Amino acid sequence: MRKRSWMSVLAAGLVLTLAxxxxxNSGGSVGSxxxxxxxxxxxxxxxxxxxxxSMANATLLAIDEINADGGVNGKKLxxxxxxxxxxxxxxxxxxxKLLMQDQVAAIIGAYTSASRQAVxxxxxxxxxxxxxxxxxxxxxxxxxxxxxxxVPNQGLQMFVPWLLENEGKKFFxxxxxxxxxxxxxxxxxxxxxxxxxxxxxxxxxxMGQAEFASLINKIKEAKPDIVFSTLVAESVSAFYxxxxxxxxxxxxxxxxxxxxxxxxxAAMGGExxxxxxxxxxxxxxxxxxxxxxxxxxxxxxxxxEPVNTQMESAYYSVYLLKEALAKTEDYSNTKQLIANFxxxxxxxxxxxxxxxxxxxxxxxxxxIGIANDQAQFDIVETFEPISPEPWSKLIFPDxxxxxxx
Length: 405
Prior knowledge:
This is Transporter substrate-binding domain-containing protein. By secondary structure, the protein is of the alpha/beta class.
C-alpha cells in the first residue's frame, strides 16, 4: 500500500513537471481558447545567441502587434519560446517538444543550416511547419518548410557583375568553413567566369575564428581588387577590424559580402567598416513607411540597437504566418496551412515580398549598400523583388525540381 502511494505521488509529480515545461504552456490543442500557439525557436545562449536573440525579439514584437490589433480571426497568437543553446541536436529536441507536447501551429526559427537541417526531419515526420527566416545556401526543398530568407541568386546575380564593373576583376574569396560559404562561393565563381573576373585566392577558416593575421598576409601578397567574404557570426567583425589594423582600407582593397549587418558594423566600429560593400534584401536605411514603423516599434520595445536584415525577416515571417492562418479553417491542419502561404504578398519593411507557390521560398528585394562611418549602409543600387532559385540555374541547369515531382 505504501509503495502504491509513493508511485502515485511520483506520477503526479511527473505530470506536473511536463505541464510546466516550455514557457508556461498550458497544453491543449493548436487553436484552443487560449489562442493559436506559435513556437519561437531561437538560441538565447551559446555561440550564435547574439544574432538569434534579436531575431527572437523581432518575432515577439510582431506577435505583440498582431495581438494588439485583434489577433487572427479573433484569436491571439500565443508564443512558446525555446532556447536551443546554439546546438543543432537540441534544436531538433526542442522542435519535437513544440510540435508534440505544446501542439504549436507552426515554428518560427532556426539559424544556421545545421540547425535547420536538424529540425527538418522533425517537422516532416510529425506533420509540422517550420518558417525559416535566414539567408542560406539553397539546394533544399521541404513540403513542411516555408523559407522566408534569401538564397544566393537573390543577391549574387546582380552583385557580382556590379562589383566587376565598379571595383575590379580580381577576387580573393574567404569564408567560414561550412556549407553556406562553400556553396555560395560556387555561384560567385560561376558568375566571375561568365563576366570576365578571376579568383586569385580562396580560403576557409573554422567557425568562430577570430585571428586573421596569416590570412591577411596572403591577401596582401595576392593583390586582389576585392576580398569576397562569406565569414559569419563573430568572425565578421574580427576580420574587418584586423583588416583595418593592418592599414588596409576600402581604398586599397574593398571587402564585398552578403553577410555583414548593421549589428556587425556597430561591433567592428564605423571606421573599420567604412567603404566596404554588402548586398542584402534589407538595410535599416531602406525608405518605406513600413520600415520607419518597424524601426520605431523595435527600438521603443528593446532599446536603441541597430535593426538588421535577420530581424526584419523574422518580423515579416510572423506577418506571413498571420495571413496564412487567417485563411485556415483548422489550425491543426498543417497541409491546409502550408497551402495558404502560396502567393501571399506583403508590404514588408524592405518593400513588397511574395511567397512562391511552388518552391516555398520567397521573392525578395535586393539592395547594394556601402558602409559609412556611422555603422549604417548607404544604398547605392536597388533591385526589384527577385524570384528565388533554390537550385541556382548557374550551377544546376538540368536539376529536376523536387516540387514538380
